[in-house]
């Protein structure tokens, strides 16, 4: 997590980054990954940074790290693609096509693309979808890193975990029929649940401020078992990403009719109470620090106020959590 967030700060030219983007071509070990050890453009600097991150997280040695690396990389490629769309280029759909268009020629001799055979099929994922998956990973990483830096600052924990919950719901509604995307969603949830389990065992106050990652229908589960290979060729995996899908779900008259037939919702524990992330935020305990000024915890905070979030739940997933190692990245 720390590696991803720190690299983001440098590439995004944030004020608290530990080095400037322009210094990538001047400082070891980054300049070693530049073409001919010289980074003269932003694309070459980003290419060098992606090589550094690839090696740092050992993306080719661990399947899950490889998945998370490609999510992180997709964020950079998606931004490059958005810039090109403004200039008239808009025919790139997959992660693989974006890499070959924007980065392949801007990377030095340490070409890592072919080394990612452990997650080879994931290269065919939709670029926009993968960018959305990185948003969830980033929110989860901010939640984890916030606890590492300011463990008693509960407001920040709530904000970051609420962002995680909102993005999880949005992603699920968009990819619920595609096992390859659901596998990614399951792994992100397992990473988050591992962190929540650690907190539940050590800090009850903080535990109460952490959201549970559930679907909008309040399903708290993993969805794919025995996953083997990524395959996005099925039509179910090729739907367009819809930012308004949650709002459309809430307005669906068929869903409302079904809810009315179920009787009084207040007596049904499976009914979902929808609140905005702002309305849900509880007041922190007396004497608790409320500043959220930690690295990487500003721009994205509560960025999706129109999204919905489930009430904080204390239940644990019946399937448990698996060790993922992302906290060590």
UniProtKB/TrEMBL annotation:
Biased region (Basic and acidic residues) positions are: 300-319
Q: Which domain of life is it from?
A: Eukaryota
Mark out the compositionally biased spans (Polar residues).
269-280, 320-329
Species of provenance: Plasmodium chabaudi chabaudi
Check the record and name the Pfam families matching this protein.
Cir_Bir_Yir
| Region Disordered, residue ranges | 248-329
User: What name appears for this protein in its UniProt entry?
Assistant: CIR protein
């Amino acid at each position: 997590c720390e590696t991803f967030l720190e690299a983001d700060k440098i590439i995004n030219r944030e004020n608290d980054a530990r080095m400037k983007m322009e210094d990538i071509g001047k400082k070891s070990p980054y300049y070693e990954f530049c073409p001919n050890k010289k980074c003269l453009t932003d694309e070459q600097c980003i290419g060098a940074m992606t090589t550094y991150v690839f090696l740092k997280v050992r993306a080719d040695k661990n399947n899950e790290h490889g998945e998370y690396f490609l999510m992180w990389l997709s964020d950079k490629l998606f931004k490059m693609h958005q810039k090109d769309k403004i200039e008239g280029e808009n025919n790139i759909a997959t992660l693989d096509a974006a890499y070959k268009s924007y980065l392949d020629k801007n990377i030095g001799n340490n070409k890592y693309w072919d080394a990612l055979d452990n997650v080879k099929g994931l290269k065919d994922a939709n670029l926009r979808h993968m960018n959305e998956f990185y948003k969830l990973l980033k929110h989860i990483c901010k939640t984890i890193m916030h606890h590492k830096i300011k463990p008693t600052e509960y407001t920040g924990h709530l904000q970051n975990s609420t962002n995680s919950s909102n993005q999880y719901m949005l992603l699920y509604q968009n990819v619920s029929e595609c096992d390859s995307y659901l596998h990614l969603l399951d792994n992100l949830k397992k990473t988050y649940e591992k962190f929540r389990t650690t907190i539940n065992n050590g800090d009850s106050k903080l535990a109460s401020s952490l959201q549970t990652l559930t679907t909008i229908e309040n399903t708290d589960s993993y969805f794919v078992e025995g996953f083997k290979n990524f395959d996005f060729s099925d039509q179910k995996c090729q739907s367009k990403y819809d930012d308004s899908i949650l709002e459309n779900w809430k307005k669906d008259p068929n869903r409302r009719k079904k809810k009315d037939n179920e009787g009084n919702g207040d007596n049904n524990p499976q009914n979902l109470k929808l609140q905005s992330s702002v309305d849900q935020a509880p007041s922190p305990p007396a004497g608790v620090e409320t500043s959220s000024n930690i690295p990487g915890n500003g721009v994205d905070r509560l960025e999706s106020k129109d999204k919905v979030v489930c009430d904080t739940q204390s239940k644990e997933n019946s399937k448990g959590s698996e060790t993922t190692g992302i906290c060590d990245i």
